[in-house]
Structure to design on (128 residues):
């Protein structure tokens, strides 16, 4: 992607164009992945109990490198939650590994019943 810059001392009247990465190694690719997990919680009678189950899971996910996690849906329901996870990596394979790891960390917990899981993986070269 070419850019432009003004030459110092010319009052901005002389522009030069440049191409970042010209003559260098290929520009690194960026891959992002998202995971949405819809969960039914066991015998939970209040939002406070729900928070006691969900908060440690989110903390565990957020401690992992290249991962961000949050409760993204059903916040007002005490027996249901939707968790969202986002990851960033330099390869498609690594994104898949991270998403697999995060999904397993949530779905292996006996206090949750998985209702649905949705994954999306994007590259910085994908068309919008």
């Amino acid at each position: 992607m070419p850019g432009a810059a003004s030459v110092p001392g010319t009052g901005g009247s002389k522009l030069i164009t440049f191409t970042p990465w010209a003559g260098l190694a290929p520009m690194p690719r960026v891959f992002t992945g998202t995971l949405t997990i819809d969960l039914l919680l066991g015998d939970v009678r209040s939002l406070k109990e729900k928070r006691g189950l969900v908060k440690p899971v989110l903390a565990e996910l957020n401690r992992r490198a290249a991962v961000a996690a949050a409760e993204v849906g059903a916040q007002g329901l005490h027996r249901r939650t939707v968790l969202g996870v986002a990851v960033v990596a330099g390869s498609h394979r690594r994104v898949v590994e991270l998403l697999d790891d995060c999904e397993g960390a949530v779905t292996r917990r006996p206090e949750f019943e998985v209702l649905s899981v949705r994954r999306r993986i994007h590259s910085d070269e994908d068309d919008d």
Remarks:
- The longest strand covers residues 112-123.
- Residues 47-62 form the longest helix (16 residues).
- The two ends are 17 Å apart (CA to CA).
- The chain has a mean pLDDT of 84.
